UniProtKB/TrEMBL annotation:
Lineage: Bacteria, Pseudomonadati, Pseudomonadota, Alphaproteobacteria, Sphingomonadales
Zinc as UniProt keyword: no
Natural source organism: Sphingobium yanoikuyae ATCC 51230
Keyword Isomerase: yes
Name the UniProt record assigns to this protein: Parvulin-like PPIase
Domain named PpiC: residues: 205-302
Pfam families: Rotamase (PF00639), SurA_N (PF09312)
Length: 454
């Protein structure tokens, strides 16, 4: 539905290792337009206007397991994958939401099975050693050894085999696409030049980096899809991971990268999304927004000017002074200690005095070099972007985390931004086309599959 322009993601980049990335892979096909059930708009199905159901099949009965071309997906498979999703969302999932997730997990496992089977049919086999290496990298992201990660997964109700199977599926599908699709995707020099020209023409205009969860709908299920979208929004507001829900529910090709659309100009978005993206501040969420063929939920990750140096890309050298509060400290006592700390910090005249005054007031002093301003929390970005070398932020923190300040010891201003080089542009355009063909490929696999639900 939306084109991704100059995202750094690539289908050639291999296994994604974001937060629980191996737990939440989904590549559902995208529906481009709503389907009507009258004879004129029904894409040739020739359905009657008045439908009478013969039989007792209840569409509300949810099947727990399935056999996909002879390969059994067990209830344990579903439970273990579901446990990973619940863990990724801090365990805060209602019973109703858990049932919806269970259905989606089964769909994802079916797609995963089809992808592995198709790769095997093309003589693509993933070496177990390669899977184990990827698993070790995932464990390292959690700062655990493989054995410690095995134990952690068991405690969460999941298992190493569940993640390893998903790693195998992702590697197999990626390799299959590289063999059967990528060699036949071509991007001409004229196309690349056209993109460069458009970027240069748009220099200085607003650009936004957003993530999207897209849910396809028809006039008949519109209310249900809207309710589902609102449930997802509520879960995210309660602390759920937007990227995790995007991987699990979004029907756009960007689901595999957590819904990240990359940097886009509002004019590149559908009108409804463009308006919301323009009005939202960084870190804000909007939806459900009705678009062609479905509903969208968007999250604004960042904003900038096209091909314009952004102060938030500055690299800072910082000193952090922090004081912790003893367990059981009251708000009043914490406020008093924070005031004393703030008064002492005001005496600091540049980073040269930070260590001396920190030692005097019993504060921990930590040096942080090459900190990108953009990577800090938005509240701190707004303060630090205007500070000069030697100046400090106001004290910030909480009773649990203590109170701290940041002192600017150095600042490397960003260089003037240039358009991505032709190789980057070509790679991005190729990725978009590969993703599009991959969705069609998976759709055809689903269509030809023999699936028995238990």
């Amino acid at each position: 539905m939306l084109s991704v322009v100059f995202s750094p993601k690539s289908v050639r980049s291999g296994l994604r290792t974001l937060l629980l990335s191996t737990a939440l892979l989904g590549m559902a096909a995208q529906t481009a337009s709503a389907q009507a059930v009258d004879n004129d708009a029904d894409q040739g199905l020739n359905l009657p206007k008045d439908v009478t159901i013969f039989g007792k099949n209840d569409p509300n009965v949810r099947k727990a397991t399935a056999i996909v071309n002879g390969r059994i997906i067990t209830g344990t498979d579903v439970d273990q994958r579901l446990a990973l999703i619940i863990t990724a969302n801090g365990g805060k999932v209602s019973a109703e939401e858990k049932e919806r997730l269970r259905v989606q997990v089964l769909r994802n496992l079916i797609d995963e099975t089809l992808q592995i089977q198709e790769a095997a049919a093309n003589d693509i086999k993933i070496d177990p050693a390669e899977v184990n290496q990827s698993y070790e990298r995932v464990a390292a992201n959690f700062r655990k050894s493989p054995d410690q990660f095995n134990q952690y997964l068991r405690e969460q109700g999941s298992s190493a085999s569940s993640i390893k199977r998903q790693i195998e599926g992702e590697l197999a599908w990626s390799r299959l696409l590289r063999r059967n699709i990528q060699p036949f995707v071509n991007v001409s020099e004229d196309e690349v030049k056209s993109v460069v020209d458009r970027l240069n023409a748009a220099k200085g205009s607003d650009e936004v980096r957003i993530s999207e969860i897209y849910l396809s709908s028809t006039p008949e299920n519109r209310d249900q899809i809207t309710a589902n979208a609102r449930n997802i929004i509520e879960q995210i507001k309660q602390g759920g991971s937007f990227a995790a829900y995007a991987r699990q529910f979004s029907e756009a090709s960007t689901a595999v990268v957590g819904g990240d659309l990359g940097w886009v100009r509002p004019s590149q978005l559908p009108t409804e999304l463009a308006q919301a993206a323009t009005e939202l501040q960084v870190g804000q969420l909007a939806g459900p927004i009705e678009t062609v063929g479905g509903m969208s939920i968007i999250y604004v990750m960042d904003k900038r000017k096209v091909l314009t140096a952004d102060p938030r890309d500055s690299l800072l050298s910082l000193k952090q002074l922090s004081v912790l509060f003893p367990a059981g400290t009251s708000k009043e006592a914490a406020s008093q200690k924070a005031a004393t700390f703030a008064a002492a910090v005001k005496e600091i005249k540049g980073c040269g005095q930070a260590n001396e005054i920190g030692a005097r007031i019993g504060a921990d002093v930590v040096d942080n070099d090459n900190v990108k301003l953009r990577d800090l929390p938005p509240q701190l970005q707004d303060i630090l972007v205007n500070l000069q070398v030697g100046e400090s932020t106001p004290p910030f923190g909480s009773i649990n985390d203590g109170v701290r300040v940041l002192i600017v010891c150095g600042r490397d201003e960003p260089q003037s931004a240039n358009a991505p080089n032709p190789e980057q542009i070509q790679a991005q355009l190729e990725e978009e086309r590969v993703n599009k063909r991959a969705r069609i490929y998976l759709r055809d696999l689903r269509r030809d599959a023999v699936i028995e639900y238990n």
